Hints:
binds ligand PBG; alpha/beta; 10-stranded mixed beta sheet; 10 strands; TIM Barrel; binds zinc ion
Amino acid sequence: MFPIQRPRRLRSHPQLRRMVQENLLTTNDLIYPLFAVPGEGFAKEVKSMPGVYQLSIDKIVEEAKEVYDLGIPAIILFGIPADKDIDATGAWHDHGIVQLAATAVKEAVPDLIVMVDTCLCEYTSHGHCGYLQVGDLSGRVLNDPTLELLKKTAVSQAKAGADIIAPSGMMDGFVQAVRAGLDEAGFQDIPIMSYAAKYASAYYGPFRDAADSAPQFGDRRTYQMDPANGREALKEIELDMAEGADMLMVKPALAYMDIIWRVKQATQLPVAAYNVSGEYSMVKAAVLNGWVDEQRVVMETLLGFKRAGADLILTYHAKDAARWLNA
Ligand code: PBG
Ligand code: ZN
């Protein structure tokens, strides 16, 4: 008779558990999203995202210092412009809100990595991620004209001091277009983190409140991926790798742990998971009701992303997580 197997032996003491721990979350893994708005001294909490604010640039700079002091290596900036139009002018203008924010942060905290989301939805009057023919209410985003705008946007963001460009609109060929634009403008050394596998998700709802970017008609299903599909994510990352992406993102994260895992197995590039707004809001709602222990639930979730294969995690919990990790 074999003796019964006793895996509990290795769980019997905290030090022993430390020794056999397979995955580890550190502050190095975290990227904190920030929303820049025009104005000064302005901070408005996003109703559906307790603890997350729309901030004017002076406040963004204060946040950036705090983030850096917590040991978080990077932020990702989103912008809410004063005006929106059909050409998404606010996205690619050299004095756009995100460009100004990126410059201000780099000036104040040069060692903080500033990632910038490269998309049009916050800047178009209709809220779609790409270019639409004037008067077209079908919501059919025109792929190739959008690429030209994304290229311009990425170059202006790099000029403003962005360290990493993160195209998020799921247009075909967007990585290639952005890479070409950056290279032509002399930004060969600026990496691209592609939102490679981005699903058409209801979990973005609170973000669209925060960024004022809900589509005015139609939805994003003709460009973002169908939640039913897994193999298609591998197709998307294959294309983005061929087009020159330096890092790949899977988004959302919680309902897509299998995708994080499969992408990690299929690439040598760093993989990022975006723990999106709706995932954050659900946890916060439960926390505010006293239904779950915030620290334990958040840390378990973030560690779960690491176990699934994420090298990096974009999360609204980043500052809290860093505080807990540093404690
Ligand atoms: C822009 C963009 C979105 C998010 C990040 N970049 C929203 C969308 O696609 O509608 C969502 C982030 C979040 O929900 O936290 N394309
Ligand atoms: Zn978009």
